[in-house]
C-alpha cells in the first residue's frame, strides 16, 4: 500500500486563514484586539534571517502584527535583558520570540528564561515545559513543533487512546514535549534514542512513530509495522548536485520505503515544518485572548473579620487583622507588577502609566461621600466611606476602591487623631496610614520651603547687586558659553523677549529679566511643616547679621495647607502638575505684576521634588478591598478632597472593557469630600469635577442622630466633655427639628442633578423611632433612600443594605450641572455659593477683600472657581447658627489666590492655617513596643 501524505503545507495554510478570520471577528467586538509577535534577532546570520522572514510572511497572512528587533552581535547581556524586560511589561506585545542561535558570549538559558511565561509563545520556558510535563499541568503554551505534530495527527484522524507511540529522539525541543502530549492523549509512549537497544523491535510494535533523531533517512520502511502513522520531524541537509544550493532537505525517515508501509506519513519538506510557524501564530493569538481575558479578571478575595463586642480601639482592630501583601492585592485588581512600586509589605505607589494602558476602558461608577453639618466629634464620613467600599467589594461582588485623603500628622498628634476610619471599617495598617505613609507630605513640605527660600534669596540678591552682575550670575557662562536654563523660557516669553542668546539682550531687557522687583508686602508664600506648632504662626525672617537688615514678618502654615498640596490633588498628569507649580503666584512686583514660581525659576525643581508624590498610594481596608490614599489638601481653605489622579486611576481599574456588560460588571469608586456637603461637596463639584471632567453617579450624605439633635436645639457638644443626656435618650421632637439641616444638604446636593442617598451612621444609643424620623424626612426632601448602616461595628456586612442602595441609585438618570459658570464676576460666584448653598440673604465684601478681587481681576485671574473658607459647624459663617439658618449676611474678610491650583479662596472666618496643640495632645498616648516595634496609642 502507499501511505496517505499528510500535507502540512496545506493544513498550515488553512490554519493561517482561520487565524486571520478569527482575528477579524474578534475585532468586530473589540477593535483593540490585535495580536502582536515581537522577534528578537541578535546578529545577522543568514539562516536566522531566512527563518525570521518566513515567520514575518506567515504572520502577515494571518493578520498578526510581527515586529522584528535586530541587535548587533556585540550587544551585552544586560542590554538585551533590559529590552526583554521592557517587552514583558508592554501590554501591546503578546508574544516574544528570541531567534536562536544567539552569539556565544550571551547565555542562552538566561536570555530565553527572561521572557515572561505568559509571553513565551515558543513554549520552551521552564514554567511552560514544567507544567506540560505534569499530569494535569497548565502550561501557558505548548511548544510549537510538538503542538504541530499533534494537530497533524488529529487532521489524519488518528485516535491515540491505547495506541503504542514511539518517539525517536529525546530533545527538549521535540522529543520530550511530544512524549508528554502523547501521554496526555492516553497513548502508551516509549521514548527511544540512538543508544536504545532493540530499537527496531520498538519501532516494529509502534502504531505511531514520531521521528526526531537528527539523522537523515535513519528509519527504514522494513523497521515499521504495516499501517503505522509516521510523523517525520527531521530537518537534515544532504548533498545534491541537482539543486542550485548543492543540497536538499530530507527527514529522519526514508520516505520512499516508509511510504510503502505506513498508512499516513508526513513529507520533508512540507510536513511538520510549516506547522511549526502556524502553531507559533496560534500561540500568539491564544496569548492575546488570554491577555484580554486577564484584563477582565479582577476579583478581590476578602479578608474575614472576627467581630468583637464591645468594639475594641481602632488600633486594636487594625492590629487584629492580617493584611494582604500589597503585591497580591494589586494583582487581584489588575495592576501590573511593573506599575507597582511597593513601600514595604502593605503599601505601594502606582505608576501613572496605568492610565495610558487602561485609557480605552469605560469608567466605573463614581460615588462621593459627604455629610450633614458635623459636630466637633465628627459624624463618620471616613468610616462610612470604608464601610460602603467593604460592602460593595467584599460582600456584593463589585470591585470597589475607597479613595481618601492622606492625613496630616498635625491632627494625628494633636486632638483629632488619625483619619483611617474607625471600628471595623478602616484603612490598614492604620499606623502606616497615619504616619508618613510614603512620604508625600514631606515632599510637599520640601517643595514648598524650597520656593520660600528661593523668594527670600532672590530679593536678597536683587537688593545687593547691580543689574549686570546679577544677570551674569543668573545666566553664568559654562565652558565659555552662556545659555538660558530651560526654566527661564516662560519668563522670557512673558516679557516678550524672543532672543535665545543671553549675550544679545539689551540693558533694558537685562534689567527686566533679572529684576523681579518683588514687593515684600505682597508676598503670600509661607513656609510649612507637618506639625501643630502654634508658635510659628508669626515669625520674623532675616534677623541674622548676614542678611544685612533685610527682615520680614511672615509665618508658617501646616503642610497640607500649602498650595503645592492643592495642586497635587487637582493635577491630571505630571505635565499638568509642572504647569500648575510654575504658575503659582507668590507675590506682586512693585509695579503690580504677578510674580510666579516660574519667574523665580523654581517650577522645575518643585516638580522634581514632587515627581513621586504624584503617584497614588495603594493600601487596603480591613476586609482586603483596595484603597487609594492620595493628597490631603486642608479642608478649611482648600478643596478638601483626595486627588483627581487617584479617582481617574481607580475608575479605570474598576471600569469595563469594550466587550463587557457595563451595567453588570462596572465596579465603584467611593471617595470622600471634607466637612459637610455644602463645603466639601460644593468644592468637589465646582472645583474638582470642573478640573477633572468627571461626574459622580451618586452623592451619599452621612447623617447621625447626634448631630441632627444639635441642629434641632440640643446643647453644644465639645471634645472631651461628657455628652448631655439628650444625645443618649430618645427625643424625636428635637431630632425632627434638626432634620432641616439634612434637608438643606439634600436640596443642595440634588441641585447638581445627581441622585442622593442618605447613610444613617448607627450609634448604639439610636432608637428605631429616631431612625424612622430621619428616613421619613430624608425621602420627603428628595433622597432616593435613607438607609441605616452599622459598618463601624460590623464592617462591610453592616453596610450591605447601604451598598445596595448606592448600586440602585447609580442606575438612576443624571442631569449634571455646576452651580456657576466662570464668565461672571468673582462677587457673583461667591454670592451664588452664599445664597444658594448656605441660605444667606447677602454677601458683604470688606474693603480688603474688594481690593484683592480688583487686583486679581486686573492681573487676569478673575475667572477662577471659588473656595469659601468658613466654619464647618454651621451652614452659615457663624458656628452658633445651627439647623438651616436664613436671612444672614456672609462677611468676606479677605480673598486670596491659588493661581496654580486654579481657584480663589474667600475667607468668611478667621481660619488658623497651622493648628495648635491642646493641653493633653495625642502624642502623650503614643509609644513603641521596643520588642516588637509595634506602635501603640494611635486613634
Kindly summarize this structure in a few lines:
With 939 residues, the chain is of the alpha/beta class. The chain is built from 34 helices and 38 strands.
Tell me about this structure.
The protein is 37% helix and 16% strand. The mean pLDDT is 96. It is of the alpha/beta class and 939 residues long. The longest helix has 25 residues, at 272-296. The chain is globular. α28 (705-711) crosses α29 (732-750). Pathway: One-carbon metabolism; tetrahydrofolate interconversion. Homodimer. Pfam families: FTHFS, THF_DHG_CYH, THF_DHG_CYH_C. This is C-1-tetrahydrofolate synthase, cytoplasmic. Residues 143-289 form the Tetrahydrofolate dehydrogenase/cyclohydrolase NAD(P)-binding domain.
Extended strand count: 38
User: SS-based structural class?
Assistant: alpha/beta
How many H/I helices?
34
Average pLDDT for all residues:
96
Rg over alpha carbons? 36 Å
How would you summarize the topology of this molecule?
Blueprint: E1 4-5, H1 8-29, E2 36-42, H2 46-61, E3 65-71, H3 77-89, E4 95-98, H4 108-113, H5 126-133, H6 144-155, E5 164-168, H7 175-184, E6 188-192, H8 199-204, E7 208-211, E8 229-232, E9 236-239, E10 247-250, H9 255-258, E11 264-265, H10 272-296, H11 314-320, H12 326-333, E12 340-342, E13 348-350, H13 353-357, E14 365-371, H14 381-395, E15 400-404, H15 409-413, E16 421-422, E17 425-428, H16 430-434, H17 440-464, H18 467-474, E18 477-478, E19 481-482, H19 489-494, H20 507-514, E20 527-529, E21 539-541, E22 552-554, E23 556-558, H21 563-570, H22 574-583, E24 585-588, E25 594-596, H23 597-600, H24 603-609, E26 617-621, E27 626-629, H25 644-653, H26 662-665, E28 668-672, H27 677-692, E29 698-703, H28 705-711, H29 732-750, E30 756-761, H30 768-780, E31 785-789, H31 791-794, H32 800-810, H33 826-838, E32 842-845, H34 847-858, E33 866-869, E34 889-892, E35 894-898, E36 903-907, E37 927-928, E38 935-936
Parallel strand pairs: 1-11, 2-3, 2-4, 5-6, 5-7, 7-8, 8-11, 14-28, 14-29, 15-27, 15-28, 20-23, 29-30, 30-31, 32-34, 33-36
Antiparallel strand pairs: 9-10, 12-13, 13-26, 16-17, 17-26, 18-19, 21-22, 24-25, 26-27, 35-36, 37-38
Amino acid at each position: 500500500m502507499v501511505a496517505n501524505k499528510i500535507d502540512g503545507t496545506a493544513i498550515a495554510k488553512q490554519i493561517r486563514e482561520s487565524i486571520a478570520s478569527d482575528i477579524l471577528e474578534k475585532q468586530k467586538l473589540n477593535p483593540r484586539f490585535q495580536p502582536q509577535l515581537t522577534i528578537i534577532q541578535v546578529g545577522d546570520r543568514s539562516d536566522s534571517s531566512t527563518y525570521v522572514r518566513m515567520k514575518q510572511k506567515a504572520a502577515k497572512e494571518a493578520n498578526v502584527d510581527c515586529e522584528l528587533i535586530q541587535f548587533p552581535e556585540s550587544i551585552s547581556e544586560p542590554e538585551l535583558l533590559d529590552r526583554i524586560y521592557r517587552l514583558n511589561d508592554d501590554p501591546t506585545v503578546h508574544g516574544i520570540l528570541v531567534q536562536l542561535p544567539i552569539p556565544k558570549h550571551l547565555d542562552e538559558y538566561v536570555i530565553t528564561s527572561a521572557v515572561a511565561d505568559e509571553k513565551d509563545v515558543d513554549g520552551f520556558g521552564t514554567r511552560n515545559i514544567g507544567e506540560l510535563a505534569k499530569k494535569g499541568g497548565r502550561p501557558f503554551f505548548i511548544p510549537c513543533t510538538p503542538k504541530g505534530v499533534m494537530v497533524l495527527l488529529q487532521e489524519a484522524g488518528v485516535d491515540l487512546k491505547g495506541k503504542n507511540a514511539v518517539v525517536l529522539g529525546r530533545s527538549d525541543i521535540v522529543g520530550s514535549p511530544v512524549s508528554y502530549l502523547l501521554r496526555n492523549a492516553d497513548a502508551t509512549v516509549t521514548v527511544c534514542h540512538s543508544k536504545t537497544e532493540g530499537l527496531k523491535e520498538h519501532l516494529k510494535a509502534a502504531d505511531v512513530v514520531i521521528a526526531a533523531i537528527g539523522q537523515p533517512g535513519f528509519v527504514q520502511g522494513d523497521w515499521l509495522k504495516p499501517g503505522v502513522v509516521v510523523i517525520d520531524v527531521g530537518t537534515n541537509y544532504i548533498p545534491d548536485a541537482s539543486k542550485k544550493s548543492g543540497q536538499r532537505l530530507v527527514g529522519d525517515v526514508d520516505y520512499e520505503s516508509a511510504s510503502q508501509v505506513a498508512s499516513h506519513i508526513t513529507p520533508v519538506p512540507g510536513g511538520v515544518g510549516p506547522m511549526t510557524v502556524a502553531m507559533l501564530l496560534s500561540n500568539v493569538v491564544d496569548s492575546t485572548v488570554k491577555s484580554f481575558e486577564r484584563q477582565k479578571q479582577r476579583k478581590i478575595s476578602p479578608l474575614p473579620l472576627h467581630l468583637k463586642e464591645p468594639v475594641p480601639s481602632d488600633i486594636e482592630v487594625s492590629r487584629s487583622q492580617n493584611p494582604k501583601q500589597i503585591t497580591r492585592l494589586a494583582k487581584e485588581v489588575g495592576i501590573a507588577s511593573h506599575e507597582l512600586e511597593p513601600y514595604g509589605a502593605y503599601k505601594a505607589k502606582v505608576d501613572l502609566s496605568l492610565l495610558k494602558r487602561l485609557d480605552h476602558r469605560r469608567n466605573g461608577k463614581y460615588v462621593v461621600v459627604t455629610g450633614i453639618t458635623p459636630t466637633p466629634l465628627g459624624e463618620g464620613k471616613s468610616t462610612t466611606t470604608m464601610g460602603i467600599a467593604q460592602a460593595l467589594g467584599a460582600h456584593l461582588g463589585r470591585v470597589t476602591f475607597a479613595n481618601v485623603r492622606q492625613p496630616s500628622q498635625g491632627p494625628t498628634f494633636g486632638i483629632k487623631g488619625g483619619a483611617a476610619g474607625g471600628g471595623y471599617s478602616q484603612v490598614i495598617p492604620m499606623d502606616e496610614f497615619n504616619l508618613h505613609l510614603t512620604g508625600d507630605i514631606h515632599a510637599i513640605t520640601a517643595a514648598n520651603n524650597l520656593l520660600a527660600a528661593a523668594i527670600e534669596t532672590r530679593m536678597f540678591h536683587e537688593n545687593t547687586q547691580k543689574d549686570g552682575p546679577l544677570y551674569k550670575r543668573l545666566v553664568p557662562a559654562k565652558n565659555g558659553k552662556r545659555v538660558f536654563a530651560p526654566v527661564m523660557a516662560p519668563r522670557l516669553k512673558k516679557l516678550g523677549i524672543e532672543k535665545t542668546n543671553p549675550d544679545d539682550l539689551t540693558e533694558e531687557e537685562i534689567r527686566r529679566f533679572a529684576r523681579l522687583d518683588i514687593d515684600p508686602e505682597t508676598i503670600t508664600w509661607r513656609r510649612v511643616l507637618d506639625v501643630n506648632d502654634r508658635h510659628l504662626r508669626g515669625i520674623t525672617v532675616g534677623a541674622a547679621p548676614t542678611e544685612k537688615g533685610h527682615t520680614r514678618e511672615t509665618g508658617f502654615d501646616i503642610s497640607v495647607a500649602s498650595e503645592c498640596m492643592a495642586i497635587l490633588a487637582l493635577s491630571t498628569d505630571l505635565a499638568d502638575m509642572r504647569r500648575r507649580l510654575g504658575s503659582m503666584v507668590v507675590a506682586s512686583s512693585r509695579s503690580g505684576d504677578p510674580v510666579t514660581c516660574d519667574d523665580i525659576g523654581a517650577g522645575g525643581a518643585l516638580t522634581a521634588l514632587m515627581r513621586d508624590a504624584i503617584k497614588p498610594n495603594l493600601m487596603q481596608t480591613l476586609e482586603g478591598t483596595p484603597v487609594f490614599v492620595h493628597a490631603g489638601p486642608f479642608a478649611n481653605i482648600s478643596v478638601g478632597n483626595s486627588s483627581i489622579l487617584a479617582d481617574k486611576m481607580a475608575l479605570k481599574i474598576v471600569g469595563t472593557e469594550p466587550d463587557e456588560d457595563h451595567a453588570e460588571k462596572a465596579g465603584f469608586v467611593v471617595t470622600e469630600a471634607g466637612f459637610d456637603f455644602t463645603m466639601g461637596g460644593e468644592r468637589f463639584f465646582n472645583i474638582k469635577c470642573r478640573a477633572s471632567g468627571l461626574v459622580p453617579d451618586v452623592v451619599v450624605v452621612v447623617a447621625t442622630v447626634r448631630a441632627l439633635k444639635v441642629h434641632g436645639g440640643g446643647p453644644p457638644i465639645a471634645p472631651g466633655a461628657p455628652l448631655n443626656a439628650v444625645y443618649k435618650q430618645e427625643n424625636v421632637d428635637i431630632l425632627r427639628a434638626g432634620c432641616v439641616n439634612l434637608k438643606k444638604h439634600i436640596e443642595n446636593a440634588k441641585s447638581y442633578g445627581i441622585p442622593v442617598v442618605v447613610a444613617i451612621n448607627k450609634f448604639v444609643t439610636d432608637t428605631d423611632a429616631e431612625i424612622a424620623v430621619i428616613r421619613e424626612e430624608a425621602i420627603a426632601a428628595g433622597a432616593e433612600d435613607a438607609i441605616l448602616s452599622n459598618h463601624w461595628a460590623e464592617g462591610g456586612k453592616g453596610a450591605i443594605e447601604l451598598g445596595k442602595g448606592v448600586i440602585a441609585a447609580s442606575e438612576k438618570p443624571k442631569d449634571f450641572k455646576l452651580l456657576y459658570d466662570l464668565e461672571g464676576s468673582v462677587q457673583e460666584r461667591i454670592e451664588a455659593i452664599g445664597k444658594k448653598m448656605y441660605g444667606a440673604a447677602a454677601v458683604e465684601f470688606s474693603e480688603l477683600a474688594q481690593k484683592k478681587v480688583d487686583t486679581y481681576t486686573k492681573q487676569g485671574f478673575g475667572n477662577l472657581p471659588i473656595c469659601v473658607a468658613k466654619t464647618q459647624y454651621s451652614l452659615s459663617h457663624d458656628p452658633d447658627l445651627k439647623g438651616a439658618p436664613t436671612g444672614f449676611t456672609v462677611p468676606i474678610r479677605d480673598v486670596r489666590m491659588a493661581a496654580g491650583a486654579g481657584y480663589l479662596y474667600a475667607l468668611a472666618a478667621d481660619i488658623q492655617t497651622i493648628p495648635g496643640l491642646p493641653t493633653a495632645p495625642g502624642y502623650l498616648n503614643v509609644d513603641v513596643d521596643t520588642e516588637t516595634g509595634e506602635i501603640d496609642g494611635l486613634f
